[in-house]
Amino acid sequence: MTSGAVPAPLGTNGGSSSTRAHRQLLEEQRDERRRAFRRPQRTVNTTRANGAGLGGRHLGVGISLSGGFFALFLMWRFAMQWDRYPNPLPTLAAWVILVIAIAVTGVFVNRLSSRMPTWMLLTVLATGEVVVGLDLAGYGRGDALGTYPTAAAGVGALFAMLVTVRRGREVVAATLVLGAVIAAGSLTAAASMPLTFAPAILTISLCVFPPLVGVSIVRGFRRMVQRELDLVLVQSTVTQPSSAVGMLASEELARIDLDAETLLDDVATGRTALPLSPAKSAAAATLATQLRLHLIEGRRETWLHHALTESEFLGPAVNLDDPSGLAGQLSPEQRDALLLAIWLLISDTDGAEPTVSLVFGPLGRTSGHEIGEMLRFPIKMIVEGVPRRRVDPETWQAIRVVGPHIDSVRSGQLHVDIECSIDNPADA
């Protein structure tokens, strides 16, 4: 989210080169804001502390049960091909270890509130390596027709239990290594006996399918939860004063306040002698400067600025130009409706990355004048990447709550001119 200059709309006579340059500018601004985005630490802590309450634990149980069905099928196949093994004892030992590992891992995963410790992850991976080694030793070189690794493929069910307590890339990497090892053992035998090629492909699929699908499901679920939490965070700014300090700034102010209290306490208790050393004086001056800057920013930044900068989804996609802070004068109903309209424009698209530019004011003689006790000013909304026919009817209803509007399409952009009426601040 940027405050200040908003990219100028394309003129009707602009060529294709200016169109590409404009879109490239929007993409660069979006990427820069996405890289610079930092979620408030309070939101991160709350999400981590309430991961189980948000359904993550139930999701993990469902994925584990799904992987368990794959393991049961493989165990049944092991029993069916028992007589064909040259030596079934190593594979039997592998299954015993795998069943114990799945049971123990399931107990620990259900008791963990958030993240599995690294040492426990390494233990699970080492156990999986032992199971794979024993199963491939019992499988031999695939000399017996109709046999293929079973316990080794069942390790995928063990890895699927980790998708909610470890990073997805770690589970994916371990799964790919496991699949490569099983492929090396299975396809080597299939080279001499083509009839075993199809079972080998099935074995590899049963190995990698549960954890990879589990990672995909968990990522989608977390994305959905983050989007809903982001919406709640954005809506919480509606009740803020016209100019206020956001969550990120308040966290920074709390840090500055703690540093200042520590310095003053050191001086009061004698731990820091007077006069202050050059280093302590520089630190005190830095704290004072940071405090003044935050207080000044708090008088200029409106609730809408905080709603956009603290939103992972709205921030990269919305440009804001409100030098007079007119957004702070909107009523709670108008604020909520404006946020809803922006949210619907950004989120109700399939694959596209729309950009919304908002220009408030000016509140002058031509656009702002008294109507009884009301003042008027324009809000210009320029939407890039969303065709008018794709705009949800609820979006137009929300815009009508903000004020009467006129919409038009120019150079592929949707322009919405809103005439907003507010109470005169002088009458408050």
UniProtKB/TrEMBL annotation:
Query: Does the keyword field hold Chloroplast?
Result: no
Which residue spans traverse the membrane?
58-80, 92-112, 119-139, 145-164, 171-191, 197-218
Keywords on this record?
Membrane, Transmembrane, Transmembrane helix
The segment annotated Disordered runs over 1-50
Basic and acidic residues: compositionally biased ranges: 24-34
User: According to the UniProt entry, where is the signal peptide?
Assistant: none
The organism's superkingdom is given as Bacteria
This chain belongs to the protein called: Uncharacterized protein
Q: Which organism is it from?
A: Cryobacterium arcticum
Q: What is the lineage of its organism?
A: Bacteria, Bacillati, Actinomycetota, Actinomycetes, Micrococcales
